[in-house]
Write a structure and sequence with these properties.
The protein contains twelve helices and 17 strands. It is α/β, with parallel strands linked by helices. Strands 2, 3, 4, 5, 6 and 12 form a six-stranded mixed beta sheet that branches. A five-stranded mixed beta sheet has the order 9-8-10-7-11. Helix 1 crosses helix 3 and helix 3 packs across helix 12. The longest helix has 36 residues. The model has no long low-confidence stretch (mean pLDDT 92).
C-alpha cells in the first residue's frame, strides 16, 4: 500500500466534493429565488427531516452518523446563504452614530464600581442609585431611566448569575459595555486595628475574589448589597467591622485602609453592561450578544456552534445558565464578533431564530 497514492486519491475525492458542494450551493441560490418569488420561509423543517432521514437510511451503517452530521452542516450553510440572498436584516434595530445621553441608573450607593462604569460610559453623568439589580432593569424597561449599568462578569470570580437571569426576564437590550479595574482593600473606621475586627462586610463577589486573604485571617464575613454599601455600613456602625471596597470608596466614606490589594488575583477586572430599552447599535459596534435555548435533538449544541464557524464569525464567549423552573433546562448566552450591518451576521441571526425554540438578540456594542 502506497501512502502517497492514497493521499493523491483522497485529494481527487476532495476536488470532486468541492465541485459538488459548489454546484449544490448554486442550486440553493435558485431555491432562495423561488422562495422570494413565492413568499416562502427559508426554514422548512419537514423538508430538512426528510433529507436527513434519506441520508441516514442510504449511508453505510458505520458511517450514517457522520453522513447525517455532514449533510446537516450542508443544509445550515445553505440556509445562511439563502438568508443572505433574501437580504435579511436585523429587524427592529436602528443604526445610530453613537451612544446617546440620558438618565443612568446603578445598583447600590455612591462609590460603587457601577458608578465608575457609568462615568466611563457617560462622563459627567449623575447616576441614580437603586437597591437591587432588578430595580435597575425595571427602571429601564419602564422608562424611568434611559440606561442602566449592571455587572456581568468578573475576570476571576466569573459571571454574575442574577444579571444573566434578568437579561432573559426583562425586555431590554445591551447598548454598550465597559471594563472597570477592580482594586480591593480592607478598610475600617479610623482607629480600628485589623486584629480588632469582628466581621468583614462586602458584596458576595468581592468576598469570593478575596477568599484566600479572608481564609488566612479567619474573620467572619457578612454580605452587603455592594462594596460601597458595605463601606457605608461599616462607617455608620458602632461595631468594629471592616469593609472590602475600593480605595476611592474607602476615602469617600471616611474609612482608613488597613491593607491594600487583597484580592487573590491582583489583575482583577469586571465587565459592565449598559442596558437600554431602545434597540440601537453603532457602526463601530463589533460584539453581538444573543440568548437561546436548544432543541432536544442529537448534536443540537454542536450544530449550533458550527454555524458560527461556517459563517466565519469569531465566538468570544459562551455561557450556560439554568432556567429557574425546576426543569434542569439551561439557557445559553453567546457573544461573537460582528455588526448588524453585516449581511452574514444578519443571515446567521435569522437562521438561529428560525431553528431554535427560543432566540433573542440582546445587543450589538463594543467592549471597552
Amino acid at each position: 500500500m502506497d501512502l502517497n497514492k492514497l493521499r493523491a486519491e483522497i485529494n481527487a475525492c476532495d476536488d470532486e466534493i468541492l465541485a459538488t458542494f459548489t454546484k449544490r450551493m448554486a442550486l440553493c441560490r435558485g431555491v432562495a429565488d423561488y422562495k422570494i418569488q413565492n413568499g416562502l420561509p427559508v426554514f422548512q423543517r419537514d423538508r430538512e427531516d426528510q433529507v436527513l432521514e434519506r441520508i441516514r437510511s442510504s449511508a453505510d451503517p458505520e458511517l450514517s452518523g457522520g453522513a447525517v452530521a455532514l449533510f446537516a452542516e450542508l443544509m445550515d450553510i445553505s440556509k445562511c446563504l439563502q438568508h443572505r440572498r433574501m437580504g435579511t436584516t436585523a429587524e427592529g434595530w436602528t443604526e445610530i452614530p453613537a451612544l446617546g445621553k440620558g438618565t443612568v441608573a446603578c445598583q447600590g450607593v455612591p462609590g460603587a464600581n457601577s458608578e465608575t462604569a457609568a462615568r466611563q460610559l457617560f462622563p459627567g453623568a449623575e447616576p441614580i442609585f437603586l437597591k437591587e439589580f432588578s430595580d435597575v432593569f425595571r427602571a429601564v424597561e419602564s422608562g424611568e431611566a434611559d440606561y442602566g449599568i449592571v455587572p456581568i462578569r468578573n475576570s476571576t470570580a466569573g459571571t454574575i448569575s442574577a444579571v444573566y437571569a434578568l437579561l432573559a426576564e426583562y425586555d431590554v437590550s445591551v447598548a454598550a459595555a465597559t471594563t472597570v479595574t477592580i482594586r480591593h482593600c480592607l478598610a475600617a473606621k479610623p482607629g480600628i486595628k485589623a486584629e480588632e475586627l469582628t466581621a468583614i462586610r462586602s458584596h458576595p463577589a468581592a468576598l469570593q475574589q478575596c477568599d484566600k486573604f479572608l481564609h488566612e485571617r479567619g474573620i467572619p464575613v457578612c454580605e452587603s448589597g455592594n462594596t460601597a454599601q458595605a463601606a457605608r455600613e461599616v462607617m455608620e456602625s458602632d461595631e468594629p467591622w471592616g469593609a472590602i471596597c475600593s480605595p476611592a470608596c474607602a476615602a469617600q466614606y471616611g474609612l482608613e485602609i488597613l491593607q491594600s490589594d487583597i484580592a487573590d488575583c491582583v489583575r482583577n477586572y469586571t465587565r459592565f453592561f449598559c442596558i437600554s430599552r431602545k434597540t440601537e447599535y453603532t457602526r463601530s459596534a463589533d460584539v453581538v450578544s444573543v440568548l437561546l435555548t436548544l432543541p432536544h435533538t442529537e448534536g443540537s449544541l454542536c450544530r449550533t456552534l458550527t454555524k458560527f464557524y461556517a459563517c466565519g464569525l469569531d465566538l468570544l464567549h459562551l455561557e450556560s445558565r439554568p432556567i429557574a423552573d425546576g426543569s434542569f433546562e439551561v439557557r445559553f448566552y453567546l457573544d461573537f464578533r460582528g455588526n448588524l450591518s453585516d449581511s452574514t451576521v444578519c443571515a446567521l441571526l435569522a437562521e438561529l431564530k428560525d431553528s431554535l425554540p427560543q432566540f433573542r438578540l440582546l445587543g450589538n456594542y463594543s467592549y471597552q
